[in-house]
Amino acid sequence: MAKITIEQGPEQEPKYCTCCGNKTLTVHGFVYNDNNAYAVYFASWTLGHRERGVSMAIGLGEWGDGSSPEKRRSMGLECRTTGDQYQFMVIEPEQSPWGKSEFLGRMLPREKALDDIQIKEFFQIADHIIQEDPRVRAFLNQRTDA
């Protein structure tokens, strides 16, 4: 059985929300399948806007030497928590901060993504990101009653 692991990349410089002025944080990382490059992800959230959850983009495909964006594709997701569960929603490319990213590969429109043969892999990677990237997990698990 394949073993998926996450390697955290550095955080980007924070930006600030235009509606409230709070920090918007963006992180990225690398996903390996049996120690082979498998995917790249970006995740972003705004402090104080927990109800909006985390926006994610996952690029899946070839990442080795000589590979190009044409050999990969991406999916935009939003993740929120309800109680003790995480809920993912596939979003349209224009709803994603990375909808026009060439690096990740072409982002699938929502309808095509939902019918994609690899959708389970995208969701599996998203689950691993939440479980293994403490930056993303910490934001999603913040208590709102504190």
Summarize the structure.
This protein is α+β, with helices and mostly antiparallel strands and 146 residues long.
Task: Summarize the SSE layout with pairings.
Layout: E1 4-8, E2 15-16, E3 23-33, E4 36-46, E5 54-61, E6 72-82, E7 85-91, E8 106-107, H1 110-114, H2 119-132, H3 134-140
Parallel strand pairs: 6-8
Antiparallel strand pairs: 1-3, 2-3, 3-4, 4-5, 5-6, 6-7
Helix pairs in contact: 2-3
* Number of continuous helical runs: 3
- Residue-averaged pLDDT, rounded? 89
Supply the number of structural domains. 1
What can be said about the biggest beta sheet? 8 strands, mixed
For the termini, the CA-CA separation is: 41 Å
Rg over CA atoms: 15 Å
